[in-house]
């Protein structure tokens, strides 16, 4: 083929236009999956020779209580995030879509935490949680709730919940904005009709707003579920998974194993497990939600 | 809405305003205190003197370099993302070939891949390619992880462009590259700005790849710099708050000027599905 024919061949052109994106995706997204799976069969410190172990890492994983408790924490985070973020975001979205003065000012300010890096949020909260000099205990003392003051991040019974709070704080505004957009798309006639039928504010929320937001809420839930299963940064920066693995997540555990203890074989095993868990949950939930939306 | 209802709504919004804003006030006023002052006065107190000493110290202990490093990595990645994503999106949206649906699904599947499964292989590859501890080593993974959502947004937008525009240009003798650069690309600028803002915020705040692929202090980006700054000044709370403040300032300024666009960009990535 000469040059002109080549330029008229749509397969050649398509390949040319797709090439950069395909190369980046293959090298950094797709190929790492089989590679990680491959590493999971070895004992390897990331530098020296690899020693074949067969399924040893996998059987170790299945009987590793820290892995299971970290996975349980991921599912707890899913639950907490669904129960906290969706209702609060929905509530704020409903507030700000009422005709009140300053709604756009509130919206602008509410969104600010979304601009912070997870590390910045974590450090900010770490010092708010400080047992002696922190804002939160100081506030509890101020309002006469001394008995509630505690070592928020140092106590293994509550460290995980304390470390989950800033995650909620940061992500609520995202879902608030999404819900606000969806609410403003609901036809006004529906509310007028409800009003004529004598519905009060609560009734129009439960019988008009909520049903109309169903698919938006389902989509937001998918994002929260998938995001929480692979969550890493804020917990890593707040507690590092501690104390004594109490706030460990799958991702913080795999990071510590791989890059602190330099046990990359076992780290890869955890990463593949994380991938499989996230994949299974999202496939199941997506199927379920698709059916749900269709009905 | 009745007047009382309105007051209740504003009151409730006010409570969330405090929850959102007070941590920033705490951060700002703490950043101006001396360490001694922080430990001896109330956390609620205003600083005794408005002093920028902490800011000067922080800027001199690396923040200027962190800014430049983050700026370089973010901008370079954005340019590559926008070019490669819009080229791919153009093919998927406009050229009918058998595989165009599968190619689209291939890219969408990328959204399902957690960053963590790629860490060890990418760490290994980056070392093999000689890119470990180099800012350019971050660009590959940053581009790859931004592509799926970018292609998704751009494909939807390009699909809306009427075919007649391209046909007219084709009849005038333009080739496909000219059509792409002169006709398609100028038309998709709004979507490109959405994609750019979404990825800008994400990449500017990226942490885990920087943590894994960079160790040399000269190459720390803003988040990794802040991470190590905290390690160095951990017991000097005002100094750490200064570091956090410096790390959030650039995006806050950006947000002050482009609020609506930033909100639109950052939620565009989430409204899929």
TrEMBL record, chain A:
Membrane topology: Multi-pass membrane protein
Domain ABC transmembrane type-1: 71-287
Transmembrane segments: 12-31, 77-96, 108-128, 158-183, 217-238, 264-288
Keywords annotated in UniProt: Cell membrane, Membrane, Transmembrane, Transmembrane helix, Transport
Pfam families: BPD_transp_1
Family: Belongs to the binding-protein-dependent transport system permease family.
InterPro entries the record matches: ABC_transporter_permease, MetI-like, MetI-like_sf
GO biological process: transmembrane transport
Lineage: Bacteria, Bacillati, Bacillota, Clostridia, Halanaerobiales
Annotated compartments: Cell membrane
Protein name per Swiss-Prot or TrEMBL: Carbohydrate ABC transporter membrane protein 1, CUT1 family
Coiled-coil ranges from the UniProt annotation: none
Cellular component annotations (GO), alphabetically ordered: plasma membrane
UniProtKB/TrEMBL annotation, chain B:
Assigned protein family: Belongs to the binding-protein-dependent transport system permease family.
Source species: Halanaerobium kushneri
PANTHER family, per database record: ABC TRANSPORTER PERMEASE PROTEIN MG189-RELATED (PTHR43744:SF12), ABC TRANSPORTER PERMEASE PROTEIN MG189-RELATED-RELATED (PTHR43744)
GO CC annotation: plasma membrane
CDD domains: TM_PBP2
Protein name per Swiss-Prot or TrEMBL: Carbohydrate ABC transporter membrane protein 2, CUT1 family
Domain ABC transmembrane type-1: from-to ranges: 67-257
Annotated signal sequence range: none
Membrane association type: Multi-pass membrane protein
GO biological process, one term: transmembrane transport
Cell compartment(s), UniProt: Cell membrane
Membrane-crossing residue ranges in chain numbering: 6-28, 66-92, 104-123, 135-158, 195-215, 235-258
PROSITE patterns: ABC_TM1
Coarse class of the protein's main subcellular location: membrane
Gene3D superfamilies per record: MetI-like
Keyword Transport carried by entry: yes
Keywords: Cell membrane, Membrane, Transmembrane, Transmembrane helix, Transport
UniProt keyword annotation of Transmembrane present: yes
């Amino acid at each position: 083929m000469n040059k002109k024919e080549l330029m008229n061949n749509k397969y050649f052109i398509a390949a040319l236009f797709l090439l950069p994106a395909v190369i980046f995706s293959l090298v950094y997204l797709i190929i790492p999956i089989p590679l990680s799976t491959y590493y999971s069969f070895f004992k390897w410190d990331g530098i020296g020779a690899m020693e074949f172990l067969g399924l040893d890492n996998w059987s170790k994983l299945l009987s590793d209580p820290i892995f299971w408790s970290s996975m349980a924490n991921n599912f707890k985070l899913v639950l907490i995030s669904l129960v906290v973020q969706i209702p609060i975001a929905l509530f704020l979205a409903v507030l700000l879509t009422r005709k009140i003065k300053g709604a756009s000012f509130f919206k602008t300010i509410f969104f600010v935490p979304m601009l912070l890096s997870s590390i910045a949020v974590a450090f900010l909260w770490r010092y708010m949680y400080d047992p002696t000099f922190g804002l939160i205990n100081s506030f509890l003392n101020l309002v006469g709730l001394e008995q509630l003051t505690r070592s928020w991040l140092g106590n293994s019974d509550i460290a995980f919940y304390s470390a989950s709070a800033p995650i909620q704080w940061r992500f609520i505004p995202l879902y608030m904005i999404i819900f606000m957009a969806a609410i403003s798309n609901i036809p006004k006639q529906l509310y007028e009709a409800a009003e004529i039928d004598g519905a009060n504010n609560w009734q129009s929320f439960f019988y008009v707003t909520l049903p109309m937001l169903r698919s938006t809420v389902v989509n937001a839930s998918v994002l929260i579920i998938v995001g929480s299963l692979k969550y890493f940064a804020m917990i890593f920066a707040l507690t590092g998974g501690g104390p004594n693995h109490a706030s460990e997540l799958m991702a913080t555990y795999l990071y510590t194993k791989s890059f602190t203890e330099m046990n990359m074989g076992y780290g890869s095993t955890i990463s593949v497990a994380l991938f499989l868990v996230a994949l299974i949950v999202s496939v199941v939930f997506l199927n379920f939600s698709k059916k749900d939306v269709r009905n | 809405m009745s007047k009382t209802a309105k007051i209740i709504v504003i009151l409730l919004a006010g409570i969330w305003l405090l929850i959102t804003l007070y941590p920033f006030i705490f951060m700002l006023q703490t950043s101006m205190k001396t360490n001694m002052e922080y430990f001896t006065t109330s956390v609620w107190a205003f600083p005794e003197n408005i002093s920028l000493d902490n800011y000067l110290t922080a800027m001199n202990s690396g923040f200027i370099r962190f800014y430049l490093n983050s700026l370089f990595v973010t901008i370079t990645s954005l340019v590559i993302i926008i070019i490669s994503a819009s080229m791919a999106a153009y093919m998927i949206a406009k050229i009918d070939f058998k595989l165009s649906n599968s190619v689209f699904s291939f890219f969408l599947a990328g959204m399902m891949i957690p960053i963590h499964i790629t860490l060890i292989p990418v760490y290994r590859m980056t070392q093999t390619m000689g890119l470990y501890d180099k800012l350019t080593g971050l660009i590959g993974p940053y581009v790859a992880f931004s592509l799926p959502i970018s292609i998704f947004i751009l494909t939807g937008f390009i699909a809306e462009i009427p075919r007649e525009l391209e046909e007219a240009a084709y009849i005038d003798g333009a080739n496909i590259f000219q059509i792409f650069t002169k006709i398609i690309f100028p038309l998709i600028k709004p979507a490109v700005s959405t994609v750019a803002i979404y990825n800008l915020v994400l990449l500017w705040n990226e942490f885990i790849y920087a943590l894994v692929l960079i160790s040399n202090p000269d190459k720390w980006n803003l988040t990794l710099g802040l991470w190590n700054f905290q390690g160095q000044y951990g017991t000097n709370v005002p100094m750490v708050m200064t570091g956090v403040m410096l790390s959030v300032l650039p995006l806050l300024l950006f947000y002050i000027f482009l609020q609506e666009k930033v909100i639109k960009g950052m939620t565009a990535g989430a409204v899929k599905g």
